[in-house]
Every structure is written in C-alpha cells, then in structure tokens.
Design a protein that fits this description.
The complex is a heterodimer of chains A (110) and B (122).
Chain A: E1 5-6, E2 9-12, E3 18-23, E4 32-37, E5 44-47, E6 61-66, E7 69-74, E8 83-90, E9 99-101, E10 105-109
Parallel strand pairs in A: 2-10
Antiparallel strand pairs in A: 1-3, 3-7, 4-5, 4-8, 6-7, 8-9, 8-10
Chain B: E1 3-6, E2 10-12, E3 18-25, E4 34-39, E5 45-51, E6 58-60, E7 68-73, E8 78-83, E9 92-99, E10 109-112, E11 116-120
Classes of the chains: A mainly beta (110), B mainly beta (122).
C-alpha cells in the first residue's frame, strides 16, 4: 500500500506563513485532502481536491501540489490554527479504492 | 443540521468483539459513503474502511481484513462497525465520517461523528 510522509512537527510565529508538506508516490496521480484536528475533537476537513476549501474554512488556508508532494499553506497563522494536520489521499495500489492518512504534523503557533 | 451521532464508550476484554453505531441525520443517508477511522492514544488517524450505504458494498483496509465488518440499516440511517478478536492495541477512539460526494465516492470526509472510545483491557 502507499504511504504518505509528513514532518512530525512544525512551528510558526503568530501572523507568519507556514507550509505543511505531505510526500507520497500516490500524490502523482491523486489529489490530497487536509484535515485539522484539535485535542479531544474530531478532525475537520480544511482542503479537498488539492486546493478547494469547504464552506466556512478561512481563506488563509490554501493547498497546492507538485510532483509527489502536496502542501497546506496557512498565510497569517492565528493562535487558533495550533493543531495537528493530516493529509489524506487515495492509495494507488488497489481497487476498490482505499485511502490513507499521513502520520500527521503538529503545528505550534509561537 | 447534518450530523453523525455515535454510540457510547465501550470497555471490552481481549478476544471479545465490539460494535459501534453511527446515526446520520439531516441528509440522504444512502447518498454518501461512510468511513470508519480510528485513532489510538497519542497517535495518528488510521482508515479502517468504508461502506456504501446505498448497496452495502464495503472495502476494508488491509490491516483490518478478517476482523472488521461494516454494515448499515437504511431504515434508521445508521452505520455500524464491528471489530472482532480485540487486542489491547485496538484501544482507540473510533470515528465514523461521511464522504463529501453525493452518490459518488470522493475520498473526502466532510462530516465526522464525535468519536467512540473503545478500551480493551483484561
């Protein structure tokens, strides 16, 4: 099965821009989605189909992709953005389809 | 509003089975695939599989094949996940999550249940 690799931890100063990355072979053929999870809460979809935001997600969240790497960028990070972030994409090795999560990145806002 | 409400916490002994329910409301239950995702304490998200509530088709992640069964009851808009032969490392929070697509599978999980804690301990 495919794997998605994320940096375990990233930090950003309040109001600055941070990029969280996700690497995997499946990303060459399938879009990534991104989830935010705060302690004790269920995950929240923040980006789907690589760059689309669900209703209600602030426009400081954006997504992009190049080659085998998908990225989530937070422009002007807020204290409320401190959370774990997970990427997700389709596993390229099977049908019926199955999806896999990256290991997650803990974002600290300083 | 659209929501998924899961059953309450469970404590099980090793070797037992657990069945978690996920009741959907305020949307067409059969129109959206349902996923089950688990999260062990302090660890990341792990997709267990999905069910198509429209026809009952399922697909399970390799790590769970042979131990997990996903079913649904369309009359009460409820999905179920049963995990058998429980081990201590099955201790986790189990989430159900709705697929964003309407009568197609997108892979994006746009509505989540609140989670059900399953503790496996002798």
């Amino acid at each position: 099965s495919s794997e998605l690799t994320q940096d375990p931890a990233v930090s950003v100063a309040l109001g600055q821009t941070v990029r969280i990355t996700c690497q995997g072979d499946s990303l060459r053929g399938y879009y990534a989605s991104w989830y935010q999870q705060k302690p004790g809460q269920a995950p929240l979809l923040v980006i789907y189909d690589e760059k689309n935001r669900p209703s209600g997600i602030p426009d400081r969240f954006s997504g992009s992709s190049s080659g085998n790497t998908a990225s989530l960028t937070i422009t002007g990070a807020q204290a409320d953005d401190e959370a774990d972030y997970y990427c997700n994409s389709r596993d390229s090795s099977g049908h019926p389809p199955i999806w896999v999560f990256g290991g997650g990145t803990k974002l600290t806002v300083l | 509003q659209v929501q998924l409400v899961q059953s309450g916490a469970e404590v099980k002994k090793p070797g037992a089975s657990v069945k978690v329910s996920c009741k959907a409301s305020e949307y067409t239950f059969t129109g959206h695939y349902m996923y089950w995702v688990r999260q062990a304490p302090g660890l990341g998200l792990e997709l267990m599989g999905w069910i198509n509530p429209n026809n009952g088709d399922t697909n399970y992640a390799q790590n769970f094949q042979g131990r997990v069964t996903m079913t649904r009851d369309t009359s009460i808009s409820t999905a179920y996940m049963e995990l058998s032969r429980l081990r201590s490392d099955d201790t986790a929070v189990y989430f159900c999550a709705r697929d964003r697509g309407y009568y197609y599978v997108s892979g994006d999980m746009d509505v989540w249940g609140q989670g059900t804690t399953v503790t496996v301990s002798s």
